[in-house]
Amino acid sequence: MTMHTSSTAGTLSSSRKFEFRRHPYLLAVGVFILLSIVNAILQPSFLRPAVAVSNLASFMPLILVAVGQTYVILASDIDLSVGFIISVVNVVVVTTIEALGGSGGAILAGFAAGIATGILAGLVNGLCVAVLRFQPIVTTFATGIIFAGVALWILPQAGGQVPAIVWRTYAGAVAGVPVVLWLLAAVLVFIAVFARTRFHTALVAVGGNMQAAYQTKLPVTRIRITSYVISGLFAALAALALVGETASGDPLLGGAFSLSSITAVVLGGTALAGGRGGALGSLFGAIILGLIANVIFFAQLPFEYQNLAQGLVILLALAGGVFVARR
Amino acid sequence: MTLDTAISGRSNAVKKWAPAVGVVRKPLFIAGVAMMGILVAGEIVAPGFAAPEQIIKMLVVAALLGIVAAGQNLVILGGKEGIDLSVGATITLGALIAGNVMQGQDSMIAIALIATLAVTFGVGLLNGIGVTVLRIPPLVMTLGMLGVLHGSLILLTRGRPSGNSAEMLSNLVDDPLIFGLPGILIVWIGLGILVTLLLRRTLFGMRIYAIGTNETAARLSGVPVGITRTLLFGLSGMFAGLAGFFILGFTGNVFLGVGDQYMLPSIIAVVFGGTSLAGGRGGYVGTMAGAVVLTLLQSLLTTLHIDPSGRQIIFGATLLLLMLFYGRQQRLRS
User: Do B136 and A312 touch (CB under 8 A)?
Assistant: First the structure.
């Protein structure tokens, strides 16, 4: 597709098409800038560093889970269980830290246990989808139910507390730079480096045409499993960010992230059919979703209109994105 | 194309040397075995589980899911990643409209039904237009619609839903009508016949399979692809509205989110019924069986007196186990 378009790129309209095809995240960046302007008008303190950092801190969980979801969707699969992976990792982290007494070592052990849980959950998804050849939507729905059950089993009721140092660090700064900015930088570096790996190219090839990828001797099964593991890992990181944000455990915390991560990925210009797009767009997609909620809150709409307005704007953004990218 | 050919056609080699494998892989056969297994297990753990009146109660619940799944089934059959994630919110909308129009009066039931179906059909058509005219992928379009409907429901009810079921509607869902079967089951069976006839015996049905199997071929042979697919989404909305109408009769009143629990199970019922998520293969009878299996399974787990977390874990694990038998994708080697 891209080849075709690039060869005809000469007139203005086809060069625009070319840009959107090659850089599907450009539209998300545009929407991001637009929303930032609107947000800054409605909420004058929006551009103040402290406010920007606190916004970023609250968007970070969705950013992380959406980045992970991207790699699954690029391989033409989908992960509906990420929200429940977040739930289970959240309660694993909080209960482990509490059980070990809340010392510095306990916090590290809790985080390690959480990340291991996320990776394990992703591995289960990957094995079911790629090895057992179960349909991805139904599979990750089913594993999601299991993960949600495990989360409830570990911590039946919201509660538990993590030591203050966890959320102080998340809201704090290292070397004069806020921790969430370090995190954002780390995510950006990961996205940039990972996009240049051979694995990423293979992932896109699998998503574009799985049969052809198989016939060119790409290890399709292993690639699909790995994409689910990455998604599980990022869901775990999102859960850690949530622990930093909420400082407690809640078995029902994550559920909503499954669908909103997919929304963020699509807003970021990644095709649900796989093979086209990238994680940078998803990062902007996640921020866009957060900004939409912000804008609607600060537009001071009556409470009962807020959800509808949010739904309409998101639908409009989704429709607009698909529409413009295809012109 | 029948269910049988749909499944055995997947692997002709298997069919040749082992016809028995073909039988075991038939969705209806697996669903039947699963039903019997659940009933026997239930009867052992909790005597009375498989008593006729108990079974009828479970079938009523299955009928509610099955009606939603009818629309889901049509959309999925139409192919091109067809799926409807907005059915849950549409159910709630349907129940809300029905409850507010009838306000407990028997005389208003018919008008409430018409109003419900009209509005939810319209919601579905909007999904269809988004998918066909704006070419938004169904998952994205219906996900967006889910958010819009959710917001609309909050706006319409100001967070405090109103409206209640007329006595006659509640009786239709709960009380025996013919042969000891509640009216809703008669309605569901009738619906099953209608949808199957629609799929197998009408031009519209042929067109659904045609666009689901090969859209380009269908377009070239003169099938109005866009209109057909738009109508499928409209019908899906309408079936969700119909389910909402009966769910109102079942629960007596409306609460926000009453339909949410049906969204993903409606997809599972379709898949367990042997309809391919790729489109073009399957039918409604299997979906009905899938809805019954899911409902029986949930009832069994409720009966088991284990805490909700254990129930969820077993439910998810059983879904995965059932997937071993069907709903698997093609081998890449083939």
Answer: no
Q: Across the interface, do B328 and A273 touch by the CB < 8 Å criterion?
A: no
* Residue B327 contacts A where some CB pair is shorter than 8 Å: yes
* Interface residue B126 vs chain A (CB under 8 A): no
Strands (E), A119-247: 173-174, 177-178
pLDDT digits (tens, 9 = 90+) for B92-121: 999 999 999 999 899 999 999 999 999 999
Burial call B268-294: b when 16+ CB within 10 Å, e when fewer: bbbbbbbbbbbbbbbbbbbbbbbbbbb
In one-letter notation, the amino acid at residue B139 is: L
Length of chain A (residues): 327
Number of domains composing chain A:
1
- Look at A132 and B328 and tell me if their CB atoms are within 8 Å: yes
The beta-carbon neighbor of A128 closest among B308, B320, B330 is B320
CATH code for the domain in which residue A148 is found: 1.10.3470
d(CA A230, CA A257): 16
Structural domain for B82, as ranges: 38-325
Return residues 272-311 of B near A (CB < 8 Å).
277, 307-311
In a domain, residue B302? The reply is yes
Q: Are A210 and A120 in contact (CB under 8 A)?
A: no
Which CATH number goes with the domain that contains B246? 1.10.3470
The answer to whether residue A191 sits within a structural domain is yes
For the segment B175-218, what is each residue's pLDDT rounded down to a tens digit? 887 878 899 999 999 999 999 999 999 999 999 999 999 999 99
**3-state class of B238 per DSSP?**
helix
Read off the DSSP letter of residue A241: H
A150 touching chain B per CB within 8 A: yes
Note whether residue A300 is domain-resident: yes
Long-range CB contacts for residues B46-54, cutoff 8 Å, separation at least 24: B46/B303, B46/B304, B49/B299, B49/B300, B49/B303, B52/B180
pTM for the predicted model, two decimal places: 0.84
